[in-house]
Structures are given as structure tokens and as C-alpha cells.
Write a structure and sequence with these properties.
This protein is of the alpha/beta class. It contains ten helices and 25 strands. It folds into two domains: 178 residues, FAD/NAD(P)-binding domain (3-Layer(bba) Sandwich), CATH 3.50.50; 120 residues, 3-Layer(bba) Sandwich (FAD/NAD(P)-binding domain). The strands form eight sheets. The protein has a five-stranded parallel beta sheet. A five-stranded parallel beta sheet has the order 11-18-12-13-14. A three-stranded antiparallel beta sheet has the order 6-7-8.
Length: 370
């Protein structure tokens, strides 16, 4: 029987492996990909889709079509649990069992909803990316009746890009500009270089976006943002962009996990307990050096993960993954405005956005053409 490589998710860390499925199959191995959608959206361009810079088809990969065209098998479903001893992945709802010899997890991340007291139709999260399409429609529908208030909770890349692109969406559509309030905790964009923080603040304030640093959000209650200090703010639409946590599949499966719940992997991107389980992207905890939840690390993991999956199938030595140096900070703040920074160097304006746009489009083109 052929050895079976099973991939959970077709995200950023699996791009090189997906592009080389035909090579893996040619070596006599079977490849199967599990994903809850036939498409994988590129998160770096999600806020731009909200703002109208990109259409949905411009920022997504046709994972199913690519996998099947290269001789692999595609399963439309969500991986719920892993049985590492029987080497099975159990699907949600159907409880179907998918066998594997080597498993790679790029199961992604989710936005915690612990501050939300329920499921509300006007509260949105940046993930899954398709949610931004629903949010876009809701903004346009509500704004037709008059001026609305939109709250964006968070001060990381996702939050600032969503706030800026809401402004672009409404400006382009010629509708009454909403009141846009960005709840940045107590220290807006903490952890970023001072110059980058200064430039982002200047761009957003220039659009009339209000940046609130009056305390952390304790609870979201339908149309209310409730802060830890007791203050409440009303909003017609709320975006909870409060950061992400790794998929819960690993904790559910009893696999070794890090403090954030991510699959704990060693320098080979390999589970610290099960040598035939690997992972990359937001869903892992890199034991050697905790990594930020940013796409650049998933992209850097690509070639190593592909090499090690094939090496594990063939019984060859594995390669070590090195996270590399500091990465480029670059943001799309809507209306053709961007901010770019690295080390002590930073600038804002149309050139910064154009560089980000070029990088993102090149990334999409590279893997769509494969």
C-alpha cells in the first residue's frame, strides 16, 4: 500500500507542498488535503477586499482544483480531532476517519470570542476571511439609512487595516461616512516601533478615525462595547480584531501544545512527541522561539516543511527551520495609504501601499500559476 501524506488545510505554510503534489505523487505516495472550503483566502489582502481594492477571486487560491489537477485527493470538511496512535484524522459532524502515514497541520487560527456574550448579527471577526464579505454588505446596507457608528476593537495589523478600509469602502461608494472608533486598549499598537506607531496614528486620524486608549474591552454585548472601567460605547457594527489563537484541534486531540494552544513543534517543524506529525503557520508553537502570528513565518516555513514531509515519507534526514531576522512591517490603511517600517526606518504614503500591493499580488500570482 502507498504511504499516505495528509494535509490539514491549504494555508500559507502548505503552499510549496501543494505546488509540488505532482512530484510527491510521482514518487509513489498518496496525497490528501482536508479543508472546510474549496478555496483558501490570503489573509494579507482581506482588509483590501473589505475596502474594495480587491475582488474575492483575486485573493483566493482554488485549493481543490489545484490539488486534484496535480493528482491528489481533496476532502471538503473540517478536521476535528487527531488520533496520533491510530494515525487517523476525524472529521467534524460526519466523524469520518481519514488515515495517514505522515500528517502536516496548517489548521490556522481563530479570533477568540470570550468577550462576546452571545452571537450577534452585527458583530464580525477578521477570520474566516469570508466574514469580511458579510461585513461589507452589512455596512453598505445600514449606511444607506443614515450615519452609523462602527467600532473596531484591537490595535494590531488587522484592526488598523480594517478601520482604514472601512473608510475607503464608504468613500468610494459615496455614502455618509460612519463614525469609526478604534479601541486600542491603553497603549495603541504597543510592541511596534515608535515611528511606525506614530505614522499609523497620523494616517488614521487624518481620515477622521477616532483612536480610543481608555482601557481594554471587557465585553461585547450586541450593540455595546463595554470597557473594564465601566464605560460603554454604542455601535451599529462591531469588528472584534483582538488577535488570534491556534486551532483547538491539538488540545482536543491530547497532543503536546504550547502556552497558546498551538501544536508544539521542534526545530524541524515536527511534533515534539510524534515524529510523523508536522505543522506550520499560526497553528503551531515553535518550541525554539515563540513566533508572532504573522504570515511571513508561514511563508518562510514553506520550503523546510515541504522538504521534511517528503524526507519523512522517504526515510531521509530532516532540515532545520530558522525563523530568520526581523520582518517587514507593512500595512494597507485604505485610500491608497500605507505604512512601511523595518528597524528604525519607516515611512507612510502611496508608495508604502504600492509596495505592499506588489508583494501581495506577486505572492498570489506565484502560487496560482503553480
Amino acid at each position: 500500500m502507498k504511504k499516505r501524506l495528509l494535509l490539514i488545510g491549504g494555508g500559507h505554510a502548505h503552499m510549496v507542498t501543494l505546488a509540488n503534489i505532482h512530484n510527491i505523487v510521482a514518487k509513489g505516495f498518496a496525497v490528501t488535503v482536508i479543508q472546510p472550503s474549496e478555496y483558501h483566502y490570503y489573509s494579507g489582502m482581506g482588509p483590501g477586499m473589505l475596502g474594495g481594492t480587491y475582488q474575492p477571486e483575486e485573493i483566493r487560491f482554488a485549493t481543490r482544483r489545484q490539488v486534484e489537477a496535480k493528482g491528489g485527493s481533496f476532502i471538503l470538511g473540517k478536521a476535528y480531532r487527531i488520533d496520533p496512535h491510530k494515525r487517523l484524522v476525524i472529521l467534524a459532524e460526519t466523524e469520518e476517519e481519514i488515515p495517514f502515514d505522515v500528517l502536516s497541520c496548517n489548521a490556522g487560527s481563530y479570533v477568540p470570542r470570550n468577550t462576546m456574550s452571545g452571537d450577534f448579527p452585527n458583530v464580525f471577526t477578521p477570520k474566516p476571511i469570508e466574514t469580511l464579505l458579510l461585513a461589507k454588505k452589512k455596512i453598505l446596507d445600514l449606511a444607506e439609512a443614515g450615519r452609523i457608528t462602527i467600532a473596531v476593537i484591537g490595535s494590531g495589523p488587522s484592526a488598523i487595516e480594517i478601520a482604514g478600509n472601512i473608510h475607503q469602502l464608504c468613500r468610494r461608494r459615496g455614502i455618509i461616512m460612519p463614525v469609526i472608533q478604534l479601541f486600542g486598549g491603553r497603549n495603541f499598537m504597543s510592541g511596534r516601533p515608535p515611528r511606525v506607531r506614530q505614522l499609523v496614528r497620523k494616517v488614521l486620524l487624518g481620515k477622521g478615525i477616532e483612536i480610543l486608549e481608555v482601557g481594554h474591552v471587557q465585553r461585547i454585548d450586541n450593540d455595546r462595547v463595554c470597557l473594564e472601567n465601566g464605560k460603554e460605547y454604542r455601535a451599529d457594527i462591531i469588528f472584534a480584531a483582538v488577535g488570534v489563537k491556534p486551532s483547538q484541534i491539538f488540545a482536543r486531540s491530547g497532543l503536546p501544545i504550547g502556552p497558546d494552544g498551538g501544536l508544539q513543534v521542534n526545530e524541524y517543524l515536527q511534533s515534539i512527541r510524534y515524529s510523523y506529525i508536522f505543522g506550520g503557520g499560526d497553528c503551531i508553537h515553535f518550541a525554539e522561539q515563540p513566533l508572532d502570528k504573522v504570515g511571513v513565518y508561514a511563508v518562510r516555513q514553506n520550503p523546510v516543511l515541504y522538504h521534511n514531509l517528503l524526507a519523512c515519507l522517504e526515510g531521509r534526514p530532516l532540515e532545520k527551520f530558522s525563523p530568520g531576522g526581523r520582518y517587514l512591517l507593512i500595512y494597507n490603511l485604505g485610500d491608497g495609504d500605507g505604512v512601511l517600517g523595518k528597524w528604525s526606518f519607516a515611512f507612510a504614503g502611496q508608495l508604502a501601499f504600492s509596495i505592499k500591493d506588489w508583494i501581495d499580488r506577486r505572492f498570489i500570482k506565484t502560487f496560482i500559476s503553480n
